[in-house]
Amino acid sequence: MAAPRILIVEDETIVAMDLAAGLRRLGYEVIATARTGEGAVASAATLLPDLVLMDIRLKGKMDGIDAAAIIHREHHIPVVFLTAHADLRTVERAQDAAPYGYLVKPFDESDLHRAVAIALTRARAERGLQQETLDALWNSEERYRLLVEAVKDHAIIALDLRGRIVSWPAAAEAMTGYTAAEMIGNQVSILHPPDVATIEERLKAVAETGSAELEEWRLRKDGTRFLAQIHASPIFDREGVLIGYTSVVRDITQERSLEAQLLQAQRLDSLGQLAGGIAHDFNNMLMVIFTRCDLLLRVNGPIENYRQYIADIRAAAMKNRELTQQLLAAARRQVLLPQVVDLNNVITPAMQLLSPSLGEHIVIRTELQEPLWPVHADPGKLHQVLVNLALNARDAMPQGGFLNIETRNIGIDESYARQHVGIEAGEYVALIVGDTGSGIPESVRDRIYDPFFSTKEAGKGTGLGLAVVRGIVEQTGGRIWMYSEEGRGTVFKIFLPRELSAAHALTADEDEPVPQRGTETIMVVEDEPLLRTIVREALEEHGYRVLEASTPDEALGMSTRNGETIHLLLTDVVMPGMQGPELAQRIADHRPQIRVIYMSGYTNGSLAHAMPHGFRYVEKPISTNALLRTVRETLES
């Protein structure tokens, strides 16, 4: 038997070559590769392949969806779409092209094999069903059974003229839970109870148009729902008389769930970039406010009558700093201070502190596995995650209920990982927080992590709580999922990896006294002029000699030309042209004894890994005292 002939349509040459090599290893024949939609249509018309693998996004006037629609309409060649991302509108357009499957990049060879085999089997089955008359199928039960039972992921169902089920294969039993004895002779509406007239009207439309493809929710025997993709076709005898219908059904619940997860991840990433950028610039200005207020508060004399006003300004700035920390958490751009943590040791004191806030009407139940694997995480941020989830649970249970907190060691296998975007197979510590409250309405579930989205009344919350939770979890290297039903409560499942490399960071207590003065030389590299000025003034006021640079290139030139000892480099992390860690490394190449402090309004997780061994860090905005203490500690270390 000749190998199935496949046409690849992919505008990235390397991807197309890898795809072709994989298909050949699987025993298929790659007959051609096209890079544009127009080329795909022309190649399909000339070569008539058995299957087309089509990238949705192609360069040129015709994208993959337009090309697939033409190929399907004119040549009835099955198409499997390849996509790395797609918005809802693109997904809806793709459905109109009647695809035989989707492959979400990146995918492995087993995913490719499965998608191609299913598409080819479905195509053969549909052609076979349309070429045979229903009488012939019924009179050749063994041939029909072998054909239908060979298709495992699709249920091929035969219906009579009134929509009553004539055949019910094993795939249909597995998909729905109904046996053939329960279904044969019944209306197909048992799975989704519209009235009989509606079923007959649908079948009449199928007979008139020649085929129909739709997606709709169906019911299993146990009452659970699944999203069914249905391709229906009429069956005519040799004289052209309509004698029945065939319906090919596929469960696409998991496929659509993965698409939804992917779309949500893309949306949150865009929101995160916006939030992170705003918070970074805002923190720079807050540091100016803090520093100027600190200077004024130390002055004796005419401003004494206005001291309270200055204190009020500083308090307002402090509130705004808390808000920017929430923004940075939502954007996954805050600085974490990770250490080896036993999650149980975070939960116990957190619940003791939270219990009075939750109220006597809420009962806390914990089930903490011992021993629990350690994780590398910021214990303060994990405390914040618990607080936010617990307070949300409290608000969902105004009449009282149970707050359930559980930890356990779990192993994630490849099968589970494929069903959940963003997580890899491996060992994790699970934190499970559930409540028995009102649940989250289905209409807003896909928005719960959006920054500033809230179901609470105006003034009752910023809408940052769950965005902060997700940001902390994902920046720690973990993943979070939510399960909820209205009236039956909500459960959040957080998976933190058993191992995650940690970076050493120092913080300072703002209430400590001002440190001793110094005489060392410090190079300050900061691209924000006003912020650079106040840092210089604060350092000079305490005896330090300061060299200023507004760009990394200027700092490198200054370090090369200056023959005196530079004791400390105080540099911003995120700057145009060069990041702080790279600048520090290049200066250290010719000044190996120089000490380094990084400062920034935010730091990407990837930058933390790029920091050289045991780095020191100050987080903007920082008070003058805290900055001076960190400088002194670094110089004396």
The Cα radius of gyration reads: 32 Å
Helix content: 40-55%
Name given to the CATH homologous superfamily of the largest domain = Histidine kinase-like ATPase, C-terminal domain
Shape: elongated
The CATH topology of the largest domain corresponds to Heat Shock Protein 90
Number of domains: 4
Spans of at least 5 consecutive residues with low confidence: 329-333, 458-464, 501-511, 603-610
Major sheet size, sense and barrel closure: 5 strands, parallel
Mean pLDDT: 76
Can you count the helices? 21
In whole angstroms, how far apart are the ends? 75 Å
The assigned structural class equals: alpha/beta
- With strands numbered from the N-terminus, the spatial order across the biggest sheet is 2-1-3-4-5
Estimate the strand proportion.
15-25%
